[in-house]
Amino acid sequence: MTGTLILDPLIPMLALYPLALAAFVIVGFGLWRGLSGWSLRGLGVLALLAAIANPSIQREDREPLSDIVIAVVDDSASQRIGNRPAQSLAALARVQAEIADLPNTELRIVRVGDGDGDSGTQLMTALSEALAEEPRARIAGAILITDGQAHDMPLAPNLPAPLHVLLAGEATDWDRRLIIKNAPAFAILGEAVTLTLRIDDQGAVPAGVAGSAVVSIAIDGGEPQSYRVPVGEDLDLPVTLPHGGMNVLQFQVAVNEGELTDRNNAAVVQINGVRDRLRVLLVSGEPHAGERVWRNLLKSDPSVDLVHFTILRPPEKQDGIPVSELSLIAFPTRELFVEKIDEFDLIIFDRYRLRGILPTSYLNSVRDYVKRGGTVLVAAGPEFGSAESLWRSPLGEIMPVEATSRVYEQGFRPELTELGKRHPVTEGLEKLAPQGGWGRWFRQIGLVQTSGQAVMSGIDGQPLLVLDRVEQGRIAVLGSDQMWLWGRGFEGGGPQLELLRRLAHWMMKEPDLEEEALVASAAGQKLTVTRRTIGDAPGPVTITAPDGTQTELALPEIAPGRYSAGWDAPEMGLYKLTQGTLSTVMALGPSAPKEFEETIASGDKLEPVVTPMRGGILKLEDGAPDIRTVAEGRVAAGRGWIGITPRGAYLTQDIRVAALLPAWVWLLLAAGFALAAWLVEGRKGRKPMQP
After folding, report:
1. How distant is the alpha carbon of residue 316 from its chain centre?
2. Is 251:165 a contact under the CB 8 Å cutoff?
3. What is the pLDDT of residues 587-638, one digit of tens each?
4. Cα(first)–Cα(last) distance of the chain, in Å?
5. Percentage of residues in the chain with pLDDT exceeding 90?
6. pTM for this one?
7. What is d(CA 174, CA 208) in angstroms, rounded to the nearest whole number?
8. What are phi and psi of 72, to 5 degrees?
9. Cα–Cα distance between 177 and 262 in angstroms, integer?
10. CB 283 within 8 A of CB 354
C-alpha cells in the first residue's frame, strides 16, 4: 500500500494562484513594517489557502507485476545449416534456466521461420509483433538467437530495455556462392546474349580452394559442360540459345569440403528464345487454287520473311516468245538452294514436279539441308504419283511415305488418327471443328507410310499427314492440295491456320510441341508437372529437392497423351525432375533464396540497433552467457554476461482518497492564528499605566 498527497481545490487552480500571491504580499508587508504578529498571520494565511486547496491522501493497493524478457529464436533456413540448430537449442535452454532463476521474471519465446515468398528472415518484424502484445512497462529486455542475417532491419523497434544478440555459427565457417548478376528474360535465336555471373567466397576460406572454382553449365537438364573459372571476378558468358521457347540454363559450382551449404552453389536462368524472323522458302509448282492461300497465309504473318519461287513458264511451254522479250527475271536458284539454303527455317514444296528447273544437285542440297537440321513440308498434288514426283528425286530418300500413283477424286472429311489425337501437332484440333464436323476435301493422293507418324487420315483410313524426323531435321508430307478449302470456309471450313501454325512450330523444334516432353511450371511453391507422350503411360516422376531428398510423383492422365499432377514443394530452391530418359529443372522462387545470399554468421547488420539499446552481441561458440539484472541506463553486457533491466511494474487493485483535514479544522486554525497575531500585536502596542 502506498500513499500520495493530492490536491482537490474548491476553486480552479488558476484562481487560487492570485489569492496566494496577494496573501503573501500582505504578510510580506507586515514583515516590512515590523509587525510582531506577521508570522502568525502568515500561518493563518497558509491554513486558509490549505482549506481552499483541500489536500487529500490517495492510498493505492498495488500488486507487483513480473518483468518480461522476449527471446526471438531464428529458425530460418540459414539457421538450419552446420551446427547452428544445436547451438540455438543449447542457448535457448540456458536462457530459460537463467530467467527461471531470476525473481518475478517471465520469458516469452517467439520463433521465426522463412518469410513469405523470398523475403528472407523477418527478425525485426517478429520482435515488433511480440512487443505489441506485451505492456511496454513490463519489458525488461529482448534476446535474439540468430546468425545475424536479418532482412528487415528498417523495421527495427525502439525497445524500452536492453537488446542482446546471441550469435550462432563458428569462426571457421566458410561458404562459396554463385551469383547471376545479369540475365535477359528473352533472346533472339541465333544471336548470342551475354550473361554475367560471379563466384564469391565468404568467411574463413581454406587456402587450398581459394582462387578458382569449377562451374558446370547444362541446358534443359542435358549433359553439363564444366569449366574452371576465377573466384571473385565478374564473368561475361556469351550464350546462344539452341531452340525457341523456354530455355532452362542451369549453372552449378562444384561443392568443396567444409562449405556451409551447397544451396547457393547453383542457379537457374530461364530465357525465352524468340525468332527474329521466320525465313520461309515457298516453291510453287503446278498452279492451283491453293497456291494463293499458301502465299497469303505466310505473307499475313509479319514475323515471316517469305521467298516465293514460282514456276510461271515451264520449259515444255513453246509459245515462240523470244527469251529476250520476256519480262521475267532470272531467279537466283543456286544462291537459294545451295549457297544460302541454311538461312531458311522452312522450305515448302507446293505441288512441285520435276521439270529440270531444279537440277538433281540442288535437290541433293535440300536433302542434306534436312539432315543437318533443316525442315521441309511437301504439299502433294496429283503430280506426286507421276514420274515427275518429288518422291522419285533425292528427297524421296528422306520422305516417310511412298507414292501409289493413285489419286482419289472424291469428297472426304479429314480425321485425326489415334496417334494424332495424342500428338501435340494435332491434339485437340477436333474441338475446333464447326457444328457438323470439318469441311470436306475432294482430292487425296494415295500414300503408303514407310516411317514417321501418321497424325491425319483420309479416304479408307489412308495416311493424309505424316511427320518424321530425319537425323537432325524434320520432314512432313501432306497428301492433298485441298487444305485451302478450310481457309475459304467451305462447309464450315476447319482449323487450317492453327494446324499450319502448330506444324511449322513442330518443325522449328519448339519445346511446346515435342512428342516426348517433361515440363514443369510453378505458382508460388506449388509445382505442376506435365508429361507428354505418344507412347504408353509413363511411370512416376522423381523429384529431387534442393536438400537432396527425392520424391516420386505419380502422373494421372488428364487428356490423350498428356499426364499431369500438382505437388506442394516444401521450400524454395532448385528442383530436378527425372522420368526415364527425360529430365528438367525448375526453380521455385530464386534458385538461391535470399536466405542463402549471405550464410556467414555476423552481427554487423544488428549492431546499429543493439548498441543504442545498451545491449551486446555475444558468440555462442564462446558459450551461452549468464543473465544479470542492471539498473536502467547502465551498460547491460560484458564478457560472458548480458543484463536485463527490472521494470517494477505493478497493477493497482484499489484506490482510496481521504481529506488530510476537514475544512472546518483548516478554518479554525486560520482563525486561531489570526487571533493569536492580534493578541501579540495588541500587547506590544499597550502603554504601561503611570503611578
Report:
1. 67
2. no
3. 777 766 788 888 999 999 999 999 999 999 999 999 889 999 999 888 899 9
4. 68
5. 35
6. 0.67
7. 13
8. -100, 115
9. 8
10. no
